[in-house]
Design a protein that fits this description.
single chain; about 475 residues; alpha/beta; Rossmann fold; 3 domains; 5-stranded mixed beta sheet; 5-stranded parallel beta sheet; about 20% strand
């Protein structure tokens, strides 16, 4: 199939939800899904957009998404007119400690001025503000009805969301059925902003897409170690507002689990994926050394303590880090988990990670690595990922597969890990759930590889793991 035939097939099945992926890279101050939403709003029916229109978007973002150093400039503009516009991610929390309960709007740019008041109808119209938040243009004004539990008399008075008003998962699935597996993988790789031709090897494409597995499969925890500049952070920072990237030095027990002082559930309770980025180079805070030990229990059963009560969460954990490699991008030794800071070298905790991605099996990013073709618009695709997360692929897989370690039945932990990765990968490569035996084998073999790579690293930390595993399966 020629490139033009491929593009025609894309436009025939997905004309209203695809965008040229290279255009969004011009606007680094907002997430990719926001810039792509703005681009889709003005591109013509052939997917074209002029340089004049791109400049218009750039001017708009610069004006309403000011640099953090211009914080006082923005406040001065507000001072002069008692209102100002701001492009940001607006999220709402309900404070039950007040009487009556209060809706508080968190506006990241406003720093210590946040949270502010918000009109009730805005929250009622945009329910996602109560979840991951909604990106959009807000009009912030002064209110004459300042409440004592707010630091300022600011209120979000008007709001224009930058998100799709209509979402059809059926369109995604029905369109998928018109593509071969190879074409579909290429479309997904274009969608995440990369060029599939830069990754001609089938296994490399699966490795790239495996980074999405924690997003589509709840409580599926991965580790990726490798050289710098392979796109680890680039992907997870731009793929979805339900993914939260954090450096270990920036997180505390309270922000991750539960803040007793303000009675607020932490990141584990509100996000789909928490990415601990730069986990090797950036140490945990001195007062957060207990995080790996606390995660051990959560990784096992998906729950954590809130005082005397337990909170269940479907959040996945993703550890990412850079390890030293030679000029051929191969690690300097094979004891990869020993590169982790000592706080993270807890065999019982690491064993609860489903899979380990060898990041050095992917090439370093160059200019040629980035997509200049069509892919799904970011705002649409993150909704697809959320929908896939709800689908119960795993139950059917568990009932169909007999997983063994050698000749013995595999342990519950190995079963859970392999079936979670298998389910997540199948959601990506066969979202209609009508996968072939060959596709099921591809996913199972890949899952076993990632799980085995975890286990074989644990022996360098704990003698108990000296005996190797030999995971194998039979399909009923």
């Amino acid at each position: 199939m020629t490139m033009s035939e491929y593009e025609n097939k894309l436009k025939k099945n997905y004309s209203s939800i695809i965008v040229k992926k290279n255009l969004a890279s011009s606007f680094p101050s907002v997430p990719r899904f926001v810039s792509e939403y703005l681009i889709m709003g003005i591109m013509n029916e052939n997917g074209k957009i002029s340089s004049k229109e791109l400049k218009k978007i750039s001017t708009f973002i610069t004006k309403y998404r000011p640099d953090p150093k211009d914080y006082e400039v923005w406040k001065n503009e507000f001072y002069n007119s008692n209102e100002n516009k701001l492009l940001d991610n607006y999220r709402v929390q309900i404070d039950l400690s007040t009487s009556p309960p209060t809706r508080k709007c968190i506006v990241p740019f406003l720093r210590k001025e946040s949270p502010i008041q918000i009109k009730d109808e805005i929250v009622d119209n945009y329910e996602n503000m109560l979840r991951e938040g909604v990106w959009g243009l807000g009009i912030i004004k002064k209110t004459t009805e300042r409440k004592s539990y707010f630091k300022t008399d600011l209120i979000l008075n008007n709001f224009e969301p930058f998100e799709l008003t209509h979402f059809s998962f059926n369109q995604y699935v029905q369109g998928y059925e018109k593509f071969s597996l190879s074409e579909w993988l290429n479309l997904l790789i274009n969608t995440i902003g990369l060029n599939p031709e830069f990754y001609p090897d089938f296994n490399q494409k699966l490795l790239l897409l495996s980074r999405l597995i924690p997003i589509v499969e709840p409580n599926t925890n991965l580790i990726e170690l490798g050289p710098k500049e392979t796109g680890k952070s680039y992907l997870m920072e731009n793929i979805s507002p339900n993914v939260y990237n954090v450096q270990p030095s920036d997180v505390t027990l309270a922000t991750l689990f539960y803040n007793i002082r303000i009675k607020q559930v932490g990141l584990l309770g509100i996000k789909d994926v928490i990415v601990f980025d730069e986990v090797i180079d950036v140490p945990l805070r001195y007062d957060s050394k207990e995080i790996p030990a606390k995660l051990r229990g959560f990784l096992s059963d998906g729950k954590f303590k809130k005082g005397n009560k337990e909170i269940y969460s479907r959040c996945s954990i993703f550890l990412m880090g850079n390890i030293l490699c030679d000029e051929n991008l191969k690690p300097l030794d094979n004891k990869y988990f020993l590169s982790l800071p000592e706080d993270w070298q807890d065999s019982a905790m690491l064993d609860r990670f489903s899979g380990f991605i060898h990041g050095w099996e992917l090439k370093k990013l160059t200019n040629a690595a980035f997509s200049n073709n069509y892919g799904f618009a970011g705002d649409y695709f993150h909704r697809v990922l959320s929908k896939l997360r709800e689908l119960p692929f795993k139950v059917k897989i568990e009932n169909r597969i007999k997983l063994k370690n050698g000749s013995k039945e595999a342990s519950p932990r190995n079963r859970r890990a392999v079936f979670s990765i298998t389910s997540g990968l199948l959601k990506l490569i066969a979202p209609n759930e009508k996968y072939s035996i060959e596709e099921l084998k591809i996913a199972l073999d890949f899952a076993i590889k990632l799980r085995t790579q975890v286990y074989r690293q644990l022996k360098y930390i704990d003698e108990e793991y000296r005996k190797d595993i030999n995971l194998n399966y039979k399909i009923d």
